[in-house]
Amino acid sequence: MKGNENPEGLEEFDSFITKIEDQILEPIIALVAVAAFLVFAWGVIEFIQGAGDEEKRRVGRQHMLWGILGLVIVFGASILVRIITNIAT
């Protein structure tokens, strides 16, 4: 084996990991990110529409919080996937 050559089978493993990331993980992460954003946006709409009702504002605020939390988790998972992929390849 010379300097930069991969051992047998390692190149196929790298290709496999890349395909899993590109075809499975990235679309799932994108879909969950869109869902979290929609929860946040729905919370904003509820908050604005319920300006006169404290209970509706509380529910809207809660939806905004869950949407933001979902986005943080999704983007954190995305970063972890990229780190693991870089380590594995």
Q: What gross morphology would you assign?
A: rod-shaped
Radius of gyration: 21 Å
Query: How many E strands?
Result: 0
Helix content: over 70%
Class by helix and strand content? mainly alpha
From the N-terminal CA to the C-terminal CA, the straight-line distance is 18 Å
Main sheet, how many strands, which sense, barrel? none
Q: Figure out the total of helices.
A: 2
Relative strand content: under 5%
- Low-confidence region ranges: none
Nearest-integer average pLDDT: 87
Order of helices and strands: HH
Description:
- This protein has 89 residues and is mostly helical.
- The two termini are 18 Å apart.
- Helix 1 (10-49) packs antiparallel against helix 2.
- The relative contact order is 0.14.
- It is built from two helices and no strands.
- It is rod-shaped and about 70 Å long.
- It has helices spanning 10-49, 54-88.
- 84% of the residues lie in helices and 0% in strands.
Brief write-up:
The chain is mostly helical.
List keywords for this structure.
single chain; 2 helices; 89 residues; mainly alpha
SSE layout and pairing:
Blueprint lengths: L9 H40 L4 H35 L1
Helix pairs in contact: 1-2
